[in-house]
């Protein structure tokens, strides 16, 4: 049971049919928000979105398919959000991919696709959200899901870590650009979270246990661990927080050696 921290607010979240985005959607709905999600246009994603709608309640939910790497997708998401619920108060840029690849053998297509979805998608969708919030004149909250990878390197993530550093930087710059309109922009930096993105990598028990031992809280994260911090940044409880980066990593970053 929530505390109605987002009562009366309308939230849009990209890439929210699964993983972190889905957990954030459920928690924000539990806190009273209307929730609109973007998902990739596939039958599997559409079915997952339909199930999410049943969980949240059709009267306060909308799913909008679209490839977030396309500039028009963010505009469409915002337009359909306003069409159904009247306004947009919170926007979470969450959609992302992380295909592991060796640097010297990485195909150009892998790099370009990662940048297009992770960074370009974040830029164009938050731009559309900011334009709507500015028009409304009531402020708002934009949250970019970055990563601990914005702060550290990864041998098989040379295409991924720059996009997450870019999202962090994007939120900082948007905070400066949009502050005069009362629009707050912050970044969430998850540590190792068990999602579909790293399921195959974490299937190696020896590697998983080694990773858990590096985390001060002695476990890897789960998508629900991001939901509370996201609600905080979306709510009026964080009304003087902008341009910030919130690590949600179980203490991993401070224990890296």
From TrEMBL:
Taxonomy of the source species: Eukaryota, Fungi, Dikarya, Ascomycota, Saccharomycotina
The name this protein goes by in its record: Peroxisomal 2,4-dienoyl-CoA reductase, auxiliary enzyme of fatty acid beta-oxidation
InterPro entries xref list: NAD(P)-bd_dom_sf, SDR_fam
Alphabetical list of Pfam families matching this protein: adh_short_C2
Record GO biological process: fatty acid biosynthetic process; rhamnose catabolic process
Top-level taxonomic group: Eukaryota
Organism of origin: Komagataella phaffii (strain GS115 / ATCC 20864)
Protein family per UniProt: Belongs to the short-chain dehydrogenases/reductases (SDR) family.
Alphabetically ordered keywords of this record: NADP, Oxidoreductase, Rhamnose metabolism
GO MF annotations in UniProt: oxidoreductase activity, acting on the CH-OH group of donors, NAD or NADP as acceptor; quinone binding
């Amino acid at each position: 049971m929530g505390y109605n921290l987002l009562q009366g607010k309308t939230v849009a979240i990209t890439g929210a049919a699964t993983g972190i985005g889905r957990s954030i959607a459920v928690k924000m709905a539990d806190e009273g928000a209307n929730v609109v999600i973007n998902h990739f246009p596939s039958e599997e994603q559409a079915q997952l979105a339909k199930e999410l709608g049943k969980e949240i309640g059709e009267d306060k939910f909308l799913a909008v398919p679209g490839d977030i790497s396309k500039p028009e997708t963010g505009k469409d998401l915002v337009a359909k959000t306003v069409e159904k619920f009247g306004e947009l108060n919170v926007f979470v840029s969450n959609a992302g991919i992380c295909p592991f690849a060796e640097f010297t053998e990485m195909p150009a297509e892998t790099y370009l696709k990662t940048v297009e979805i992770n960074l370009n998608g974040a830029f164009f969708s938050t731009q559309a959200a900011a334009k709507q919030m500015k028009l409304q004149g009531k402020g708002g909250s934009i949250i970019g899901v970055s990563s601990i990878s914005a702060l550290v390197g990864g041998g098989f993530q040379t295409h991924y870590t720059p996009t997450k550093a870019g999202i962090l930087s994007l939120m900082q710059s948007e905070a400066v650009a949009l502050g005069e309109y009362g629009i707050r922009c912050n970044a969430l930096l998850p540590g190792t979270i068990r999602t579909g993105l790293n399921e195959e990598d974490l299937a190696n028990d020896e590697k998983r246990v080694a990773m858990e031992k590096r985390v001060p809280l002695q476990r890897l994260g789960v998508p629900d661990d991001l939901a509370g911090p996201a609600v905080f940044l979306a709510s009026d409880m964080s009304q003087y927080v902008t341009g910030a980066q919130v690590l949600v990593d179980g203490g991993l970053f401070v224990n890296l050696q």
